[in-house]
Amino acid sequence: MVKIFMPKLNKKEKKQSSWSQFGGSILTTILIFLVIIAIFSLTADEKNKIEEISISELAQSVASGEIKKIEVAGEKLNIEFLNETEKKSKKETESSLSETLSNYGVPVEMLNATEIDIKSESGFGFWLLRISPILIPILFILIFFWFISKQVKGSGGMQAFTFGQSKARMTDPSDTNNRVTFKDVAGVKEAKEELKEIVDFLRNPKKFLDIGARIPKGIILTGAPGTGKTLLARATAGEAKVPFFHLSGSEFVEMFVGVGASRVRDLFKMAKKASPSIIFVDEIDAVGRVRGIGVGGGNDEREQTLNQILVELDGFEPNEKVIVMAATNRPDVLDPALLRTGRFDRRVILDLPDRGDREKILEIHSLKKPLAEDVNLKVIAERTPGFSGADLFSLMNEGAILAAREERKKVSQFDLIRSIEKVMLGPERKSHLLSKKEKEITAYHEAGHALLASVLPNADPVHKISIVSRGHAGGYTLKLPIEERKLQSKKEFIADLAVYLGGYVAEKIIFNDVTTGPSNDLQIATALARDMVTKYGMSDKLGPVAIEGFGGRIIFGQGIENKEYSEKVSALVDEEVKKLIDEAFKTANEVIIKHKKALDAIAKELIKVETLEQAEFDKLLILNNIKPKKEATKKINKLRV
Ligand code: ADP
Ligand code: MG
Ligand code: ZN
Predict the structure, then answer these.
(1) Lesser CB count within 10 Å: N end or C end of the chain?
(2) How far is the CA of 4 from the centre of ligand 1 (A)?
(3) What are the b/e assignments for 155-182, b being 16+ CB within 10 Å?
(4) In 3-state terms, what secondary structure has residue 74?
């Protein structure tokens, strides 16, 4: 069902009139029923005034010759006595009156002497009574259906009646309130550059068609979740000022089998009618996964939908001025047929924002929020490596919520700083009280991580440690890379492994026991070691092979990893993973035993103050003869507010 943005008043009026119509007819029906009931009860009342006698009494009266006339109407008997009184009675429908009376022992001659008048049953009331047991349910059913069909037309929703149609939402270019343009998207410069070409084409197709240029039909936006794919697609339509049909991949595969394909057909038909226009299929991986390797239900439907998308993409000519955009954060699982030339052959990649872009995104989202003088968005941007646009959006929002909760009119820098951790780790759980023993264990655990991060040259330096639990974490140690980087080296990974195990080893050495606390650390470390061996070619024994891809196949709706190597290799992988972990464990052990005094100092301080910032932490390191990481210290000190 397409919701086209009609002038608002119109739509409301229409809805209202249909409702009043509907309400009116319901009212008349109810009124008619009331009238009928009233008539019935009236006539019934009248009859009630006449005394009713039993059939045996009647038989007696007949036998004693008191009766002048009996009127028979169906089972009802109206009796007229000789003394002019009227009474009524009832007989069984099956047998005749004379039969009944003679059964009661009325002599035949007395029967003959009484006038019996048999009236044919007729009259509106009679018939209504007869058919009402059938009529009333039918009426109710009719009313019910009519009500439902009204509802469907009224709300434009009921799926059972509209399932073939596309469910795309269309945004009209004249709807200036909801219009998004490139100005609302910060960063992603290359992507915007690519899309400007499309905007140009949609605005001025003639220029391109005259010179015989072929404009791409399909553009696929890829990037991590929250990098602004959906936003950028909308902005493209907003810039070009063309209608924008927005549909999510999962909506194709809803509810009924066979519907996905017809929805695709509908969608393309509508877009062509509105051309120049943009069709946007969000989360296309829901339908566009590699075909033919699935086991279990639901795949046929997906395949049909995907096939239909391919047919439509092939079917329309460039001069139809419809651009199809799609977005996914799993480009690796897409069917290669989708990405072939002439289909989604343009790939636009959206990266996570770097420091400068983060600042710009923060600026965009602070436009409507009054900021205090002390706010320095640059500092916030520096402290949020790895945040996506969506994370930054929610950071700004959290900051505003904090300020509002503390009855302040402006968002301060401190609000934003607190929000960073909230977005990263979930809210602080101050109510989650640790017992004295738990607090001690958590303190040593975090101190273990922090110590390793400070001692190992290839690890990222610590910028905050805390034993206040947040989200699922009992405590946390935040590390901040000295500089932003896209590539990670084997040496860094090896250091990371040791840092992850730091918590576990500290607990083991100090308490001679292990808790469930480090289980998440161990999972992360194992997964990292596995990736090093199977994806990055960082194992000496296996050499530079990537035996595990990034895809996966679908079995019963769940992705499982492809395993296309022998048992022998599999055993070798396990061996190599174990070796990496063992080495990391050894490193962690050595470091912690060597610097046990420092570990004690950090843990004791943590138990006392619960949260240590970089400067305080560095002081502790210096006191224990560990040199803090120079470069980072300088930088973080400069950042401190
Ligand atoms: P995706 O579709 O890639 O998962 P969205 O486009 O839904 O991400 O982004 C979610 C929100 O994050 C957007 O509505 C916007 O508020 C914010 N956002 C993401 N990227 C940017 C950006 N580059 N500039 C401004 N805001 C952004
Ligand atoms: Mg999205
Ligand atoms: Zn840990």
Answers:
(1) C
(2) 25
(3) eeeeeeeebebbbbbbbbbeeeeebbeb
(4) coil
Q: Which residue has the tokens 């119509």?
A: 21
User: Which has the closest alpha carbon to 527: 473, 585, 581?
Assistant: 581
Question: Any long-range contacts for 34-43 (C-beta under 8 Å, 24+ apart)?
Answer: 36/128, 39/125, 40/125, 43/125
Per-residue pLDDT tens digits for 28-80:
777 777 777 766 666 655 555 678 888 888 888 888 888 888 888 777 788 88
Furthest C-alpha separation in the chain = 136
Q: Tell me the domains of the chain and their CATH numbers.
A: 51-121 (3.30.720.210), 169-350 (3.40.50.300), 355-425 (1.10.8.60), 436-555+562-640 (1.20.58.760)
pLDDT at residue 636 above 60? no
CA–centroid distance, 500 to ligand 3, in Å, is 6
Q: In whole angstroms, give the CA distance from residue 77 to residue 119.
A: 10
List the structure tokens of 118. Answer: 């048999």
Among 282, 325, 366, 393, say which to mutate for ligand 1: greatest number of ligand atoms within 8 Å of CB.
Answer: 393
Residue pair 9/175 in contact by the 8 Å Cβ criterion: no
Concatenate the DSSP letters of all residues of 4-22 into one string: ----HHHHHHHHHHHHHHH
* Residue-level pLDDT at 578: 94
CA of 222 to the centre of ligand 2 (A): 10
> Cα 418–423–429 angle (5° rounding)?
70
Question: What is the value of pTM for the model shown?
Answer: 0.61
Q: What is the pLDDT of residues 401-455, one digit of tens each?
A: 999 999 999 999 999 988 988 888 777 666 666 678 888 999 999 999 999 999 9
SS3 category, 71: strand
Q: How buried is residue 436: exposed, middle or buried, by Cβ count under 10 Å (0-12/13-18/19+)?
A: exposed
Enumerate residues lining ligand 1, CB below 6 A.
185-188, 223, 225-231, 327, 361, 364, 389-390, 393
